[in-house]
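Lab channel / #folding
Pinned by the channel admin:
"Please post every new chain as: sequence first, then the structure tokens as a reply. Keep commentary short and put observations after the output so the thread stays searchable."

First post following the new format, from NK:
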Amino acid sequence: MSFVEFTGTARLGRRTKNLVRRLGPGDVAIIDHQDLDRASAEELLESGVRVVVNVALSQSGRFPNPGPLLLVRGGVRLIDAPGAELFDELGDGEHVTVRGASVFRNGTCVASGRALDAGQLEAALAAQRGRVTDVLEVFGENTLQ
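Reply from TO:
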């Protein structure tokens, strides 16, 4: 079943660990969390939230990061909208609709981003792990020489 749209209450929080205490299944979590870590992803899943919009990159590629994949595999719609001004555009508790990878308030689009899917995230994680292995091998060879 593909995602069509979800209407819920916007809950904004720049600190994910504090926001999760206020989230429920009828909410749209608006976060600012670059490299969304595994612990935060697990807390978001436990909250029951179905949609997360991140105004930062959930997975920057700097290191292997399974958090976003865990969230998406758990059935959460994860949208990256880096640079979106949602913390200025929306107030906590406003009703919003997420359609595709865009956020609407009263029918007006306030942000558009990119929905992350499991396939993309799996490939990115595998590539990141491969780079770490390559770097460690080079480091080991240099150390031995």
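NK: The chain has one domain: 5-144.
TO: also worth noting, The helical segments are 16-19, 38-47, 67-73, 86-89, 118-144.
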